[in-house]
Amino acid sequence: MIVSKGGAMGTSSEVLSLMQSIFANVSDAILVIDQEGRIVKANAALEQMTGWTEEELIRDKHICELCLGMATCMEETSCADCFFKRVQMPSFEMRLRTKSGVDYPVAASSARLEDESQGKLVMILRDMSAQQRVEKERYQYKLTNFAIQAQEEERKRIARELHDGVGQALYSILVGLNVVRQRELSEPVMQHVAELVNMTSKAMEEVKRMALELRPSALDDLGLLPALRSLMKRVEKTFHIQVELHVQGEKRRYSAAMETALYRIVQEAMTNTAKYAKASHLGIMFENREKEIVVTIVDDGVGFEVEKTLKIGKGLGVFGMKERAQLLGGTVDIRSAPEEGTTVIVRIPVPKEGVEDEHSCLDRR
Fold first, then answer.
1. Is 79 annotated among the ligand-binding residues?
2. Are residues 228 and 143 both part of a single domain?
3. How many whole angstroms separate alpha carbon 306 and alpha carbon 336?
4. Does the annotation list 361 as a binding residue?
5. pLDDT digits (tens, 9 = 90+) for 98-129
């Protein structure tokens, strides 16, 4: 009879049966290696991980044929420091080679069995590919979010420099030129000054337009809807497209990240319509629902084949729109077909109360 630590009694056959059941059914791969490095025992999980059957593993495989090297967070560990040379390694990472030739990371631990086992080594392996994929996606998310934030900050800085620096300098030049115009000048000089005034005025307008495109001050000062209305006026004036905005629900401020993302998505959609759609009308429906913001942009343009356009790499703006929405847990759905116009549906979930930042105050404008 065998007595467990808790005092329960059990026969050696029962314990052996339990251990065999664990060995066969545990989700982690378990293998036993002899002193020469040959696999002498493997469970079903290892077969599933590697693609080799137990018979193939035991008959033909050396541990070095499955192991592509141990790894640490800093560097690859060479075979000179192999786990097989140690009595015990409670935790390490290695690359596992499969029958199909694919390799992927596994978390491993190893321990040398007692003397009567003739120095055999037992290893336990756990598939880390899914976890690493999640970590990679999380890292990509953080990197994308950082890049977009940095881009917006740089846009804001350049827009401010254009307005306060270049814009003010041009305004000073314009004032000086107007002072000169008040003097008695010959006709050729007066004409030349008038041309300079005209050129300076156009340059001021261009600087103003560039600053607005980079980062409209209305977005920070007044909020999303006033900024969208200002954008609509510029699109109507520049591209001669009739734009209508319909708002449903309470008008208020949202988080800075949400307002910026929605503004950029709508801006990209309107720019695409103006450049490519040959549309005469564009409608925007802004819906403030209980749990989400839904923005629908519809044009009556020539339309396009969505999948084909994305496949050949002409939809970089579309990818940017979707990326911005995804960072906020939202989606962008684009529906279009040749000669049927285009509809863009944006859905962004509204954060719970207490999560929004300093822009969460009501906007009654």
1. yes
2. no
3. 6
4. no
5. 898 888 888 888 888 876 667 788 889 988 88
